[in-house]
Amino acid sequence: MIETSPSSPRGETALRAIAMPADANPHGDIFGGWLLSQMDLAGSSIATRRAHGRVVTIAVTEMIFHKPVFIGDEVTCYAEIAKSGRTSITVSIESWVRRARGADAEEIKVTAGLFTYVAVDPDRKPRALP
Predict the structure, then answer these.
(1) How far is it, in rounded angstroms, from Cα 89 to Cα 77?
(2) How distant, in Å, are the alpha carbons of 91, 96, 105 from that of 12?
């Protein structure tokens, strides 16, 4: 279960990106799919380190969109391992945005999700975690 109201990000910084016009609808809202893909990249970087090699995404078991992301927002994904199994790694990921630049930048939690990855060998078959 994802905690819905922390006052600061949990986990390590796994990815940072600026939301651009190509990632938005005509009203300036960033597509949920773009944000989901950023979170998947962030989670896979954490899972790859834990697995000491290649991983594949097998599930997004929980995803919550708290607030919209807008063009120009600095999006930061924070990730931490929630659980490790024999071949799988579940990563809790939060996305926060910075809406203003400088010392008075407002940080807002916009999404949270649970992503599960499986370690795979060169033949793309599941392999045991080290």
Answers:
(1) 17
(2) 11, 12, 20
- At 100, the pLDDT band (50, 70, 90 cuts) reads confident
pLDDT of 106 strictly over 60: yes
C-alpha dihedral (72, 38, 52, 61), degrees to nearest 10: 140
| Largest distance between two CA atoms of the chain | 50
Token pair of 5, please? 């109201």
Domain 12-119 has CATH 3.90.550.10: no
- Decide: 95 and 14 in contact? Cβ < 8 Å: no
Q: How confident is the model at residue 65 (pLDDT cuts 50, 70, 90)?
A: very high
pLDDT attached to residue 5: 53
Closest CA to 47 of 85, 74, 17: 85
SS3 88: strand
Model confidence, pTM: 0.91
- E strand segments, 19-124: 55-65, 74-84, 88-98, 107-119
Output DSSP code: residue 116. E
Cα–Cα distance for residue pair 49/44, rounded to 1 Å = 8
